[in-house]
C-alpha cells in the first residue's frame, strides 16, 4: 500500500508516493527524485557521504526512513547554490582544495553547512575537525576541508553581519 | 531489509497497543534500528513510528527540582542546551563524545538507552550469537574481544552496552519512565538493562509493547555539577565506541569528598555503577591514593572474557584519571575533544 508524504525539497513543496516503507531518505532522493548529489557510500551511517539537512539539521540520509519524515524540509547539495552563484561553503572547498576524487564532497559540504548553522565550533580548528568527524574522506583531503570550513564560516558570518 | 508494516502512532496508548504484538518494534530516529535491519540482525514485521507523539521531546523541570528528559529529545539538542550542560556537565560531555554530529542530530534520548550492543558477532548474521538466536552459542568467545566485557559477563554472552550517555546517567541515579499496556511504571536506570546470565536475548526489563517515555534525573544530580567529568578511551580520536569509559562526579565538603558517584562504560552489558568505589571515596581527601583505592574497588570483580585482560588495568587508570579530572573541577567550557583521554589535567605538570 503506497503512502503519500509531503516534503519540501530544495525549496519546492511536493507530494511524493512512498510505495514501500523501507525506502530511506537517501534512496528516495537518488532513485525517485533524481537528486544524486548525496552519495551512497557505506549506507550504514559510518561515512557521511549521504549527509543532507532535514529541517535545517544535518543527518545521515541513509539512516532515516523517508515515510517517517512526512512534512519535513530537505536541503541537498543541489539546492545550495543560488543559480550560478556558489554557496560560500562550495566556494571555500574549491579555494582550499577540500577534495580530490570528489565522492565524499557533497556530504562534506552539507555537513559543513550544518556545522556552521549549529554555531558550536567557533574558529577553533580542533572543534571543526571534531564536528566534521562524521564525514570520512578516503583521499585524505582533511587539511583542505578544515581550512575550507573555517573560511566559509567566516564568510557566512560576515554575510549575516553585513 | 525485510518488509514490514508501517504504523504511525498518534498517542502513547495507540503506540503501546500497536507495538504489543509479536514482531513489532518502535521507530524513533532509527539510527541504530535501520542499521540493524539492513544487516538482517533486526527483522521487525511492524514498525510503530513514535516520532509524532505529542510532548515526548520536551525537557522539563520536575516539581521536585529534578529534570525530565523526554524520550524523543535529540542527543545534540540536549548536549547543546546550556542550562542542561551546566547542571549535568558529565552527561553533556558523554553525549558529545558519542557518534557523529549527524547521528547526534537525529538520535533520541530513549533510543540511546535502547541501542543494541556493537559486538561484531552480534552484528554479523553468519556468526553464532546467543543474543540473536538463543542457544546458538557465542562466537565472541575466543574471538576479537577488544570491545567485550570484563564485568558481569557470562559464558553465554560477553557483549557490552555501547552507550556513553547512560554512563553518567546511571551514576546520577537516573530513572526510566515507561508506558505500559496497563498504565505506566518507572525503573531505576541501574536496573533497566539486564546482565546476560543464561538469557542474553533479554536485554532490558521492558515487557512487550512497553515504551520508554522519559528519563528523569533527581534533584540531587545537579549537586555534582562543579566536579563532574566523562572520560572515554577509544580507538580513534572521534566517532568511535568506548573501549573503556568512566563518569566521575564528586560533591566536596571542604577538603574532603562528601559523596562520590562513579560508573563505567564499555566494560559490561549495562552501564556499570561502581558503588563499592563510591563508598571507598566517601569522607576521603580527593588525592591519588584515594582515587587508586576507588579504581581497585571498581574493578575488584573484573575478569577477562577473552584476550582483553588489558581492559581491567586500563579501566583502573581511566577511573583514577576521571576522578582526578572531576576533582580539578568541571571546565567552564567543554574541551574541543569531549571526554578525550589526551586532554591535560588542569593544574597538573605536563607528562
From TrEMBL, chain A:
It comes from the Bacteria. Keywords: Iron, Metal-binding, Oxidoreductase. Residues 3-80 form the 2Fe-2S ferredoxin-type domain. It holds the Pfam family Fer2_2. SUPFAM superfamilies: 2Fe-2S ferredoxin-like, CO dehydrogenase ISP C-domain like. Gene3D superfamilies: 3.10.20.30, [2Fe-2S]-binding domain. PANTHER family: OXIDOREDUCTASE WITH IRON-SULFUR SUBUNIT, OXIDOREDUCTASE, IRON-SULPHUR BINDING SUBUNIT-RELATED-RELATED. This is Aldehyde oxidoreductase iron-sulfur-binding subunit PaoA. It comes from Methylobacterium crusticola. The gene is paoA_3.
From TrEMBL, chain B:
This is Aldehyde oxidoreductase FAD-binding subunit PaoB. Signal peptide: none annotated. Keywords: FAD, Flavoprotein. Residues 1-222 form the FAD-binding PCMH-type domain. InterPro entries: CO_DH_flav_C, CO_DH_flav_C_dom_sf, Diverse_Substr_Oxidored, FAD-bd_PCMH, FAD-bd_PCMH-like_sf, FAD-bd_PCMH_sub1, FAD-bd_PCMH_sub2, Mopterin_DH_FAD-bd. SMART domains: CO_deh_flav_C (SM01092).
Amino acid at each position: 500500500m503506497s503512502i503519500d508524504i509531503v516534503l519540501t525539497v530544495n525549496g519546492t513543496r511536493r507530494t511524493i508516493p512512498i510505495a514501500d516503507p523501507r525506502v530511506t531518505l537517501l534512496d528516495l532522493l537518488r532513485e525517485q527524485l533524481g537528486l544524486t548529489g548525496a552519495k551512497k557510500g557505506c549506507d550504514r551511517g559510518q561515512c557521511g557521504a549521504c549527509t543532507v539537512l532535514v529541517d535545517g539539521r544535518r543527518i545521515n540520509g541513509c539512516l532515516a526512513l523517508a515515510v517517517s519524515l512526512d512534512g519535513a524540509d530537505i536541503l541537498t547539495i543541489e539546492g545550495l547554490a543560488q543559480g550560478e552563484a556558489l554557496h560560500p561553503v562550495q566556494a571555500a572547498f574549491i579555494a582550499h582544495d577540500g577534495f580530490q576524487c570528489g565522492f565524499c564532497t557533497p556530504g562534506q559540504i552539507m555537513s559543513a553547512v550544518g556545522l556552521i548553522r549549529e554555531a558550536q565550533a567557533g574558529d577553533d580548528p580542533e572543534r571543526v575537525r571534531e564536528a566534521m568527524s562524521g564525514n570520512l574522506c578516503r583521499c585524505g583531503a582533511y587539511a583542505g576541508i578544515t581550512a575550507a570550513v573555517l573560511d566559509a564560516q567566516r564568510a557566512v558570518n560576515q554575510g549575516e553581519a553585513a | 531489509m525485510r518488509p514490514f508494516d508501517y504504523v504511525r502512532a498518534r498517542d502513547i496508548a495507540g503506540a503501546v497497543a500497536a507495538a504489543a504484538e509479536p514482531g513489532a518494534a518502535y521507530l524513533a530516529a532509527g539510527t541504530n534500528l535501520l542499521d540493524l535491519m539492513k544487516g538482517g540482525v533486526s527483522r521487525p514485521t511492524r514498525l510503530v513510528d513514535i516520532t509524532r507523539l505529542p510532548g515526548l521531546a520536551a525537557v522539563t523541570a520536575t516539581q521536585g527540582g529534578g529534570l525530565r528528559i523526554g524520550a524523543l529529545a535529540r542527543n545534540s539538542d540536549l548536549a547543546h542546551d546550556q542550562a542542561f550542560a551546566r547542571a549535568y556537565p558529565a552527561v553533556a560531555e558523554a553525549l558529545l563524545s558519542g557518534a557523529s554530529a549527524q547521528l547526534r542530530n537525529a538520535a533520541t534520548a530513549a533510543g540511546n538507552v535502547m541501542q543494541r550492543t556493537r559486538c561484531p558477532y552480534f552484528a554479523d548474521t553468519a556468526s553464532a550469537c546467543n543474543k540473536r538466536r538463543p542457544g546458538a552459542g557465542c562466537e565472541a568467545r575466543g574471538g576479537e574481544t577488544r570491545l567485550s566485557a570484563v564485568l558481569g559477563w557470562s559464558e553465554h554472552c560477553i557483549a557490552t552496552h555501547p552507550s556513553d550517555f547512560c554512563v553518567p546517567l546511571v551514576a546520577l541515579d537516573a530513572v526510566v519512565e515507561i508506558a505500559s499496556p496497563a498504565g505506566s511504571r518507572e525503573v531505576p536506570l541501574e536496573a533497566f538493562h539486564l546482565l546476560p546470565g543464561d538469557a542474553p536475548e533479554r536485554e532490558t526489563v521492558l515487557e512487550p509493547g512497553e515504551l520508554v517515555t522519559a528519563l528523569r534525573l533527581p534533584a540531587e544530580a545537579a549537586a555534582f555539577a562543579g566536579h563532574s567529568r566523562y572520560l572515554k578511551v577509544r580507538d580513534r580520536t572521534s566517532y568511535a565506541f568506548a573501549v573503556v569509559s568512566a563518569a566521575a562526579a564528586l560533591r566536596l565538603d571542604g577538603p574532603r569528598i562528601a559523596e562520590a558517584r562513579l560508573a563505567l562504560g564499555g566494560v559490561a552489558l549495562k552501564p556499570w555503577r561502581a558503588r563499592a568505589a563510591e563508598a571507598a571515596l566517601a569522607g576521603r581527601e580527593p588525592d591519588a591514593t584515594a582515587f587508586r583505592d576507588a579504581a581497585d574497588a571498581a574493578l575488584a570483580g573484573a575478569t577477562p572474557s577473552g584476550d582483553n585482560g588489558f581492559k581491567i588495568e586500563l579501566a583502573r587508570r581511566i577511573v583514577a584519571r576521571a576522578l582526578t579530572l572531576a576533582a580539578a573541577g568541571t571546565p567552564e567550557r567543554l574541551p574541543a575533544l569531549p571526554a578525550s583521554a589526551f586532554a591535560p589535567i588542569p593544574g597538573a605538570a605536563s607528562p
